[in-house]
Amino acid sequence: MEITFESADPPALAAFWSEFAGDEIELTFVWSDVPKIEKNRIHIDLASSSPEHQADVVARALKLGAEHADVGQADVPWVVLRDPQGNEFCVLEPRPEYPGVIAAVVVDSRDPLESARATGHPVVRSGDGFASVRPEPGPWLEFVRTDDAEPITNRVRVRWADPV
């Protein structure tokens, strides 16, 4: 799986994400002068192995220039942040289904089940407002329902390998 970030300063953003991404997915950073004006449709969820580990990942991200973000999440057990260039990401509470560094790549969708099926990978789980596939190797690819308007720009894009 490959995630591409558009950025006004690709080397700086690459340095930030190199602290968290591990080798589970390929991250690419390309230059763009288009300003970030809305919530990204795609974001990364980082995994944690304990409440202390979750707090450590959040503290490291904040020290490296991340900020807390409110995207309407209310009272949830995960922490929503923005990287130094405004891209949203989450640090999840410990969940056994997410053993890697990156738990999931999350994609907003009007029809999560249809979007998950369109990947060509088997839908592993689905429910009210979400559907997930698990391309191997790598993190989960999760689609969550949104009624948000289509974004003006897509500063973060995902490309995944076709199933064999």
Instruction: Look at the helices and sheets and give the structural class.
Output: alpha/beta
| Mean pLDDT over the full residue set | 91
In total, the number of strands is 11
Strand order of the largest sheet: 4-5-6-3-7-10-9-8
Pfam families: Glyoxalase_6
Protein name: Glyoxalase-like domain-containing protein
Domain Glyoxalase-like: 3-92
Describe the structure concisely for a colleague:
The protein has 164 residues and is of the alpha/beta class. The chain is built from 3 helices and 11 strands.
Feature tags:
11 strands; alpha/beta; 164 residues; 3 helices; three-stranded mixed sheet; eight-stranded mixed sheet; 18% helix
Question: Helices, strands, pairings?
Answer:
Elements: E1 2-7, H1 10-18, E2 26-31, E3 42-46, H2 51-63, E4 67-68, E5 79-82, E6 88-91, E7 102-109, H3 112-118, E8 123-127, E9 130-133, E10 140-145, E11 156-159
Parallel strand pairs: 1-2, 3-6, 7-10
Antiparallel strand pairs: 1-11, 3-7, 4-5, 5-6, 8-9, 9-10
Domain Glyoxalase-like: 3-92
Organism: Lentzea cavernae
Pfam family, one: Glyoxalase_6
